[in-house]
Amino acid sequence: TEGWAAGLQLAALSLRQPGPVDSARRVYTFAGARQHVFAYLMEEVLYHQPEEVRQFLRETAVLGQFSASLCTAVTGQQDADRLLAQLAAANLFLTPLDDQGQWYRYHPLFAEMLRAGLDETAVQTCHRRAAHWYAEQQLLPDAIHHALAASDYDLLVRLLEQTYKTLLANGFLVSLQKWLAAVPNEFQTPRLRLAFAWARIYESGEADLQRTLTGIREQLTAMDGPLQGEMLAVQAIYSSLYGQPEQSIEWAKQALGLIAPDDFLSLAAAYQALATPTAIRASLTAPWTPTLRP
Fold first, then answer.
1. Phi-psi region of 121 (alpha: psi -120 to 50; beta: other; left: phi over 0)
2. CA dihedral of 200, 205, 209, 211, whole degrees rounded to 10
3. DSSP E strands: which ranges in 118-196?
4. Taking 70 as the threshold, does the pLDDT of residue 131 lie above it?
5. Measured between alpha carbons, how far is 257 from 226 in angstroms, rounded to an integer?
6. Quick one: average pLDDT of 254-272?
């Protein structure tokens, strides 16, 4: 839907540029195949920008959206706010995303052309810098997205270990499953394996859980109390789901004595596992009194 509008915008910008190519030639070229026209006009518009601006455009094109602060983190250019204002004034395919003029994005075709001017190492460097910036702002899904795009698995693992409980609590189950699955085996840690057990709690069977927990124990030479409590909470939930109420109650009780006070996900799971079979058992043993309707 943005294609033809962008084409007209590109043509207007190209016609404004000084140089030996006359307007008639530019108009004639514009009448050709659209995709080739875009490439020609974009390159011509970019050619007339100062090198500082061209580099800024290329490096920020890896971002789906950006602010001045994020651009500074990614490019190292301290005057990103000035450059963004300059690009907006020049109508250079910069679309504002809010009324305050804080966040922008590029036209998709323009961004694609800009990214083509970066090698893979430069692209990954920009994504890595963006991941660190988003992490500092506590915008965790965006931080994880850019860490994965950067193939920075050390950073990705650190982010996932720090945030998987928050992500689960905030409903990012499908995204978490996808991110965990993207971590190569050589980067897997005990906590990531435990995160995977949480994320697949309604999909895995008891045998899958036991394999996961066995793998965690094999990786750890020593296990602290809170981690052991979290593992017991996961086991309790699995047992309550797979018809083992007595085992579920036992593991939940053990877990509550070990879980860290600020581990709300594990505490909630343990209490849920404790309550569910107890409630079921109570409902089965309580006398039933029929309610008579008048």
1. alpha
2. -120
3. none
4. yes
5. 9
6. 89
